[in-house]
Amino acid sequence: MELDKLVQCVVDADMDNVKGLVEEGISDGVAPSVLLKEGLIKGLDIVGEKFESGDLFLPEMLAAAMTMKTGVEVLKPHLTGEETETAGTVVIGTVQGDVHDIGKNLVAMMLEGAGFEVIDIGIDVPAEDIVKAVEEKKPQILGLSALLTTTMPALKTTIDALKEAGLRDKVKVMVGGAPVTQDYADEIGADGYASDAAGAVTLARGLVQS
Ligand code: B12
């Protein structure tokens, strides 16, 4: 199968064909991670660029995101392994003001596949609700996602809120999302940063052991 077709499918938000194309890729033996990165994610990156340059608008970006999600659903059973032992518990969410969840969901999915119990607290989650979730669920790891430069500071607000609640040393905090960097993660006192879902799994495994 030609990966370009899958890329274009996301760009065009061609909902009718995405399932078939992903299935075709799988039956042709294309690695699921390749279908994800060089197909679906590449398509969304192009959409992001077109949005930035004004060649495409919010409804189209949303439709592309829904197409991507449909594709991910088909990929899901192929991407995740079948670990049975619990590797640890992770509470994960997107910070306040931010509704982007595709990346967070991928991270959650891969962590689950790697044997973690994942509690997804959703999008646009205020710091106080995140603190409450940590208090109640007592996870080893808290994963925070931010996709906007304007919501990145909420990562810090959340870490500060954990400190105030006396919970900071009870949980490891890992952060991610397109604008987030290792430097930023260090600056705000996070325990770790990963640039993609596979990296998040490696990071989480390390954090549980440290
Ligand atoms: C799809 C999309 C949307 C969809 C989101 C749908 C959804 N359910 O998620 C919709 C249409 C709703 C949307 C809305 C907006 N968006 Co938008 N969106 C995107 C787009 C095209 C793709 C994002 C995406 O899903 N990428 C694919 C995933 C797989 O990648 P990812 O999220 O980065 O996640 C990976 C890593 O970052 C990492 N990761 C992510 N989270 C975590 C967490 C942890 C703990 C770890 C370790 C790792 C990790 O692992 C993931 C998997 O590999 C991006 C452009 C882009 N290429 O990023 C713009 C983009 C993020 N959006 C942008 C903007 C401006 C907006 C709006 C403000 C537009 C508007 N005018 O209203 C609104 C904001 C709404 C809000 N309040 O949040 C800008 C942000 C600019 C900036 N510098 O802040 C971007 C960059 C587009 C652009 N180039 O201008 N958007």
What does this structure look like?
The structure is a single chain. The chain is α/β, with parallel strands linked by helices and 210 residues long. It has 2 domains: 3-79, Methyltransferase, Methionine Synthase (B12-binding Domains), Chain A, domain 1, CATH 1.10.1240.10; 88-209, 3-Layer(aba) Sandwich (Rossmann fold). It has helices spanning 3-11, 15-27, 32-52, 58-79, 102-113, 127-137, 153-164, 182-187, 197-209; strands spanning 88-94, 116-120, 141-145, 172-176, 192-193. The chain has a 5-stranded parallel sheet, with helices on both faces. The longest helix is centred in the first third of the chain and has 22 residues, at 58-79. Cobalamin binds next to helix 3, helix 4, helix 5, strand 3 and strand 4.
Task: Itemize the secondary structure elements and their pairings.
Layout: H1 3-11, H2 15-27, H3 32-52, H4 58-79, E1 88-94, H5 102-113, E2 116-120, H6 127-137, E3 141-145, H7 153-164, E4 172-176, H8 182-187, E5 192-193, H9 197-209
Parallel strand pairs: 1-2, 1-3, 3-4, 4-5
The chain binds cobalamin (B12).
